[in-house]
Amino acid sequence: MSRRSLALAAGLAAIVLLVRAPASGQAATAAVKPKASSGAWTPPRTSDGKPDLQGVWSSATLTPLERSKGLGAKEFYTDEEFSELLKRARQGEFGPEADIGRAAPQAVRFDLSLYGLDLTKVGFASSKRTSLIVGPEGSVPPMLPEARKRNAERAARLKGHEYDSYRERPLAERCVVMPQERIPLETGPDADQNLLQIVQGTGYVALLHEQNHQTRIIPTDGRTHIPQNIRQYQGDSVGHWEGDTLVIDTTNFTDLTPFRGSGPKLHVVERFTPTGDGAIMYRFTVEDPETWDRPWTAEVPMRKATGPVYEWACHEGNTMITTILSGARLAEQDAAQKAAAK
User: Fold this and answer.
1) Quick one: which H or E segment has residue 60?
2) Of 256, 191, 259, 263, whose CA–CA distance to 29 is shortest?
3) Residue 102 φ/ψ, nearest 5 degrees
4) Which candidate, 41, 7, 9, 27, places its Cα nearest to that of 198?
5) Strand partners for 250
6) In the predicted model, what is the mean pLDDT of residues 33-38?
7) Residue 307 to residue 26: CA distance in whole angstroms
């Protein structure tokens, strides 16, 4: 399976936005170490005066989304604890803090570093947070009873009909919406598939996800959301600038693309703030009054990567959905024949 090329990304952005694409680098997923700044730091600007966020960024991190129960309400590691955690990770010791589920060296199947899969090369969040979710709880709020009932009823309706047609199968099986391109951007320990390329133009920002074929075109010209009766898999995103922060507001989701059990009233606000040379703080806030009793927020430090973003071609020659449904029909025929023979 290949990854999307930088040239394709730049070409798409140029056609849609009529802007230039940033220069590419050399390595596939190697992160550029942020340069230390002295005194007040001012981000570079584009020709229209906006902060220049362009480039390829990696959100790979060993820091889990939710805090390990053993850490209680501890939001940050001390410098000494963080140093020890990094040391252990470099030695391949991944405990519950990393949410990896094992404490043994990685299996050697191939050169993992070639694909950004060598966990010993992935760090923890530079903010020293114990979880990406901010706050003393450090976890997703409990789901409301109504939401649990809604999801249970959906699962009950699907039970026994999981293979009736493509409509009952996950969107990822048809390469429509893959996990790593969902909104908000969730991350994990693997650098592979965590790259995000940002291209800017006057009144627009384009976000190219490494996984699959999604290029989000975000207008920043002050327009409002589309009417509420129009729903889209990835919602409707509009953006604006608050100082040096790019703010993206997304609504109008469908019930076919739930985020952690959310409903169509899901509302996501993403913030991209440059924090230094080669560093962006990605912060998202999620709310859904029909799923959680309060909004919750996560912060993901992003590092600049040298790129390029190779083509990640999910659908070319993909027979997953036809194979699954064909197998289901054969199983039904076999069951029918056995029943008739009794």
Assistant:
1) none
2) 191
3) -155, 160
4) 9
5) 237, 268
6) 50
7) 6
Residue type, 79: D
CATH of domain 3-34+43-60+138-341: 2.40.128.20
For residue 176, name the pLDDT band (cuts at 50, 70, 90). Answer: confident
* Token pair 């053993």 in the structure block, residue: 70
The predicted-structure confidence for 267-289, as pLDDT tens digits, reads as follows 999 999 999 999 999 999 999 99
Q: Which amino acid is at 9?
A: A
Task: Give dist(CA 233, CA 175) in Å, integer.
Answer: 13
Rounded Cα distance between 272 and 48, Å, is 18
Rounded to two decimals, the pTM is: 0.81
Query: Distance between the two ends of the chain, CA-based, in angstroms?
Result: 46
- Which residues pair with residue 132 across a beta bridge? none
Task: Provide the token pair at 337.
Answer: 């024949």
Residue with tokens 């680098």: 25
**Tens of pLDDT, residues 310-329:** 888 787 778 888 999 999 99
